[in-house]
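Thread amino acids onto this structure.
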């Protein structure tokens, strides 16, 4: 990768087909691929891995990575109108630039990565934008996506931090923080329902919760841990587990892997999509920790 940056001692470059950097400090270890500014691993000291990664994931230029934290921009899910375009947008498939790496006084490490609109992005999405993504690796992982409208027209977009969490058995976990919230059930024709109490998993689960800004907590009785997922600048929460049949249909997802994960996604999608005036910026952030 030959970064022009002078990297702090906690950051190491990993060259290869898909360049990455690893972070190892007194709080945690992490790995971030430059493609998609994709956080692939986060392991606090004294804890197991918090982010799930499929053993079948591809790590190839232009191919999505199945796990960690995919950065979805500028649309969520399938592109409305152009189904031939990649699901969840183009940002996760493109090489970002590492523009900053520093050790902070509290012992955490902050990486900054950038992606600007280009001739390549314009082929899929003819808008001008600049993305800045900060990844702070400490006892907690904080990721923050800043979107800037660098064009002369309003910028209308969706975004998501599509976070895959590692659990022992999704059939035994509960997600707190969404009780009473409305959701669109993508497994049941997108009809609107209301979440009653703890969200548990008994089948394929794909729920989009509009207008939800709070913290979610995953109670994992088998691992004896609670993963806390907080966020700012996000009005949509998405909860997903593919279960048996959908996992089997995904070539980059092992048939037996689905019990080991669930996604809790910070997003601004569908009715919560965003519009930025020229020169305006917006930041969406997610913080993941063991509670
Ligand atoms: O966020 C849930 C979801 O939209 C599911 O419908 C499923 O498609 C998942 O994202 C994974 O999408 P991907 O394009 O990464 O395979």
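Threaded sequence (291 positions):
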């Amino acid at each position: 990768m030959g970064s022009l940056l002078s990297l702090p001692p906690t950051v190491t470059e990993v060259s290869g087909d898909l360049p990455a950097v690893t972070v190892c400090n007194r709080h945690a270890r992490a790995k971030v691929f430059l493609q998609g500014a994709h956080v692939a691993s986060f392991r606090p000291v004294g804890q197991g891995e918090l982010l799930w990664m499929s053993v079948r994931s591809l790590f190839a230029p232009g191919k999505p990575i199945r796990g960690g934290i995919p950065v979805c921009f500028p649309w969520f899910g399938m592109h409305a109108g152009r189904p031939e375009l990649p699901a969840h947008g183009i940002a996760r498939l493109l090489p970002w630039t590492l523009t900053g790496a520093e050790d902070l006084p509290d012992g955490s490490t902050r990486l900054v990565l950038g992606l600007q609109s280009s001739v390549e992005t314009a082929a899929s999405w003819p808008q001008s934008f600049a993305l800045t993504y900060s990844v702070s690796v400490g006892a907690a992982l904080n990721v923050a996506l800043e979107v800037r409208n660098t064009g002369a027209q309003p910028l209308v977009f969706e975004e998501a931090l599509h976070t895959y969490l590692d659990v022992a058995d999704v059939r035994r976990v509960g997600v707190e923080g969404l009780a009473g919230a409305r959701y669109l059930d993508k497994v049941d024709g997108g009809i609107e329902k209301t979440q009653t109490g703890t969200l548990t998993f008994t089948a394929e689960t794909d729920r989009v919760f509009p207008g939800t800004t709070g913290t979610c907590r995953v109670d994992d009785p088998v691992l004896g841990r609670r993963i806390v997922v907080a966020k700012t600048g996000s009005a949509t929460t998405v909860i997903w587990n593919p279960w048996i049949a959908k996992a089997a249909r995904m070539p980059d997802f092992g048939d037996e892997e689905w019990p080991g994960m669930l996604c809790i996604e910070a997003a601004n999608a569908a009715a919560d999509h965003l519009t930025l005036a020229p020169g305006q910026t917006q930041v969406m952030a997610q913080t993941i920790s063991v509670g």
